[in-house]
Description:
Number of domains: 2
Strand order of the largest sheet: 15-16-14-13-19-20-21
Strand content: 15-25%
CATH topology of the largest domain: Nucleotidyltransferase, domain 5
Structural class: alpha/beta
CATH class of the largest domain: Alpha Beta
Distance between the termini: 52 Å
Shape: globular
Radius of gyration: 22 Å
Oligomer: single chain
CATH superfamily of the largest domain: ATPase, nucleotide binding domain
Helix content: 25-40%
Number of helices: 15
Amino acid sequence: MGKRDATAGVVLAGDLGGTNFRAGLVDGQGAIRADCVLPGPARSADGIDAEGWWACLLEAAARLADEEPALFASIAGVAICGVTRTQVLLGADDRPLRRAIPWNDARAEGAAARLRGALGAHPEAAGLNAFHPLARLAWLAEAEPEVLARLACVLEPKDYLNLRLTGARAGDAVSMARLLAGADALGHVGLAAAVLPKVLAAQQAVGAVRPGLPAPLDRLAGVPVFCCANDTWASVVGLGGLRPGLAYNISGTTEVLGVMSDRPGFAEGLLSLDWGGLWQIGGPSQTGADTASWLVDLLGRGQDGVAPAMEALLRGARHGQPVLFLPYLQGERVPYWNPALRGAFLGLHRDHGPADLAFAVLEGIGFLNRIVLERAEAALGQAVAEIRLGGGAAANPEWCRIKADICGRPVVTGAVDEPGLLGAAITAWTGLGRFASLDAAQAALVRMGRRFAPDPARRAAYDRLYPLFRQAEAALAPVSAGLAALSAPV
């Protein structure tokens, strides 16, 4: 195969999300020329089959090659972002030893408590919880020692795909931040630092696509594959939000909200991460579009999809008295890191209907956004100028308004529907040398969509409801713990 022109053509961008896998061909002006979305592999109680992600990449590439053969032939680079806080555990032969442990797996809660005691004053001890990669490895040492004994490498999901493409093990410092910070504590779980892959910047090449891969990836032999980073980071880049003074909210299967700053700030329950010279203060929730999906299924309205069902519910009439919803259906990560939290509707009246429940769900998620935003702004001592919003919520104007009114900040959406794909493409184009930096690439390729300013009247109404939401959280947390303790084993 002849050498491809790295200044022309397109890049193959991927976004391995919590529910779906997206792929697209993105040109040097930031236009997504072709794209497709596939359902990701099913989750079981024991995790996710990483081979399912590889099957998704193969199928997505085949669809794009069939749809746009000339564009596919012009691919100059590959970059895949992906869901994080998920561990792919490999043996010496680079094959998974077991199903990947996903972001929402809380089985390591007991192991986390025991490891905290063993670590003492270690900097990672205070934040060690069921979702921390060190806790997951401690759980593995207790529950599956035979797997731990054969463990050769721990990878993020997108890094597993990069390995399959190139044969090289690598990861980025943003996605691996917690594992890297705890590298010197790996001995407490019977591991050495050799289980960590090489660390690269997002725009650095992991390697080139190796020959002999299944069609149509065999046509990409020799094309560079860039490390990229987690799906949140890529979406922030695709929203032009990798700049101090802005907040971002990626509202997909789960919510992620953070504030970008040129200096570190620390707040209870929030993650403070160095994103390559800029600091992110915030982090991932357990709630989001998956919570909306739960509601429409519960109401029997999901036959035509979650988004149309929610839009129809939000057009319904509301009762004069609002309903509160605590959105903790799967426990919570930021800002509580408590897998025992549970969800609840409060204030139900006989005359409340489906529309009241739909608004309550979106408002409950919005109140959680506000808690994270307030803590981050307080830690930095300044308010953000606006919130850049991406993900499924960005396509729903009512949800955008709810977020703006509850948080009291303008909410601005991107011009593209899939900022994760654009962010991955920006990474690839920067790595290929088309742009001198990620900043320059954002400035050239990102365009904004709609702007939703807070409505003063709705903002005032939410200011009255917000303290009640916080009271409900505090009052029901002990009840949640009691109910969780009564749970039958799965």
